Amino acid sequence: MFLRYLDLYDAIEERSLDMLDNSDFADTDIPMEVPLPDRPHLDAGEHEAVKEWVLAVSMDNKVVQKLPTDDRGVFEASLASPGGAAATPCLVSGYPVLGPRIDFARPGMAAIREEWNRLVMVGKMASTAADSGNVQDVLKFASAWGGGAGGGDRGGSAGVAVVGGGAGGTGGAMGFSFN
């Protein structure tokens, strides 16, 4: 799995995907054919540091060299399910929304409740005003993209509904209430 970085780096250098072994990703929705950038993002020194780390980690017998799977039996980040149905991607993480969720007003827009709450908490716990403002900007954007009020509605629901039970809380950073 970690060796994929080295394979992609070599593919960029060679300007060809022909040498990539995609067998580890056969049962995922990870794209096999991707456009290659003109040059690697990392400079040669940074690449060597990452390469050394990847090679050291890949030799560690304690490191599992297999993609993690979820309750569906597929790669945990895969939106495709064995039956062909596609899961809704989480607005925060991109992972499939399978359990407790927050549905936004725009159809097909949802977040894994734990991920959304974590993002809201980061906004509340930011150590500086600048950090807090950055997280608040992300929350406003995500809410607006999901069809909510985008943060301007300090007292309403911002088009968000919590699904999946559990204790509610207040998403105070955005002014919507999770019931």
Report what the structure shows.
The chain is α+β, with helices and mostly antiparallel strands and 179 residues long. It is built from four helices and five strands, in the order ααββααβββ. Strands 2-1-3 form a three-stranded antiparallel beta sheet. A hairpin with a 5-residue loop joins strand 1 and strand 2. Helix 3 runs antiparallel to helix 4. The protein is globular, with a radius of gyration of 20 Å. The C terminus is likely disordered.
Note the topology.
Blueprint: H1 3-14, H2 44-59, E1 101-104, E2 110-112, H3 113-125, H4 129-145, E3 160-163, E4 169-171, E5 176-178
Antiparallel strand pairs: 1-2, 1-3, 4-5
Largest sheet: 3 strands, antiparallel
From the alpha-carbon coordinates, what is the Rg to the nearest angstrom?
A: 20 Å
Q: Give the proportion of residues in helices.
A: 25-40%
The order of strands across the largest sheet is 2-1-3
How far apart, in Å, are the first and last alpha carbons? 40 Å
Structural class: alpha+beta
Give the overall average pLDDT: 79
> Number of DSSP helices?
4
Note the run of SSEs as H and E: HHEEHHEEE
Shape: globular
**DSSP strand count:** 5
pLDDT < 50 stretches: 149-158, 165-179
Please state roughly what percent of the residues sit in beta strands, choosing from under 5%, 5-15%, 15-25%, 25-35%, 35-45% or over 45%: 5-15%
